[in-house]
Design goal:
CATH superfamily of the largest domain in chain B: Winged helix-like DNA-binding domain superfamily/Winged helix DNA-binding domain
Number of domains of chain A: 1
Shape of chain B: globular
Strand content of chain A: under 5%
Number of domains of chain B: 2
Oligomer: heterodimer
Distance between the termini of chain A: 25 Å
CATH topology of the largest domain in chain B: Arc Repressor Mutant, subunit A
Structural class of chain B: mainly alpha
CATH architecture of the largest domain in chain B: Orthogonal Bundle
Distance between the termini of chain B: 50 Å
CATH class of the largest domain in chain B: Mainly Alpha
Number of helices of chain B: 8
């Protein structure tokens, strides 16, 4: 696994949505790579900061627009 | 205690990112509250109480997380990502054909040196808000539910009727864009 692949996997990693083998190779990579360790740390900080926003700061989408937007994702889902 | 009840869900969610199980996360939150109560006399009101509590929480969770190795189950598949949705600009990695191809050419700079007052400031949070506002509606809705409101993955999938995989793809793209926005905002000053 290289760094460019690893940055695609961070949400899977944090969600625990990853096969054991893959998780281990992420861990091994992180142990040896300062760049990716920093990236993971930034990703966590990003999530923490997002969590500090209030509901009012991120208003929900208009329902109709949302249904329309998700239509493509549903039909495309495996 | 009103305050504890109100912050409990988001505190748990944050703790959960640093430790492997919900049970440990609950301990971390409890430990953080102890820290809050102990330190209350020293709270000088230079930041909001909320910010101060979360700072204690993150420090507690980090310490705990460093002590334990994450262990997690489950499965998902990695599929190639369209160019515009790459979490990091491909130019920042070494090009193909080299021995270290795909490794960082321009690695991110740690935010550890960013003063907390700046990192947690209203201005920084406003940047996060703007980055979220600029997302496509699907990504915005998923990050809103997961990271702002603290819904679980399963709850979001149910509400939006999308698969776990799709939900995570949208969430990851959204988070990656917010991180990029923060990186350029917090990053070392460029000419």
């Amino acid at each position: 696994m290289n760094c460019q692949e690893l940055v695609e996997l961070i949400t899977d990693y944090l969600d625990g949505a990853m096969p054991e083998v893959e998780r281990r190779s992420v861990d091994e990579h992180l142990a040896a790579c300062d760049g990716c360790t920093t990236y993971l740390e930034q990703f966590r900080t990003t999530i923490v900061l997002t969590g500090m926003l209030t509901e009012e700061q991120v208003p929900p989408e208009a329902r109709d627009a949302l249904l329309e937007a998700f239509r493509g994702w549903r039909t495309a889902s495996a | 205690m009103m305050l504890a009840e109100r912050y409990q869900p988001s505190m748990l969610r944050i703790a959960r990112m640093y430790v492997s199980t919900r049970a440990v996360a609950e301990e971390v939150v409890q430990e953080a509250w102890v820290g809050v109560l102990k330190g209350l006399d020293g709270f000088e009101g230079r930041s909001s109480l909320r910010t101060w509590i979360f700072r204690i929480l993150v420090n507690t969770a980090k310490t705990r997380g460093q002590r334990e190795a994450r262990s997690v189950p489950f499965s998902s598949l990695w599929s190639p990502t369209p160019e515009a949705e790459r979490p990091v600009d491909p130019e920042r990695f070494l090009p193909e054909g080299q021995r270290w191809s795909g490794h960082w050419a321009d690695a991110p700079a740690s935010w550890e040196s960013v003063p907390e007052d700046r990192l947690l400031s209203h201005e920084t949070l406003a940047q996060v808000g703007q980055a979220i506002a600029a997302l496509p509606p699907t990504q915005r809705e998923v990050i809103r539910l997961r990271d702002v409101l603290g819904w679980t993955s399963a709850e979001v999938c149910n509400a939006l009727e999308i698969s776990e995989t799709n939900q995570r793809v949208l969430l990851h793209r959204a988070r990656a864009k917010v991180r990029r926005a923060l990186e350029s905002y917090l990053g070392p000053e460029e000419g």
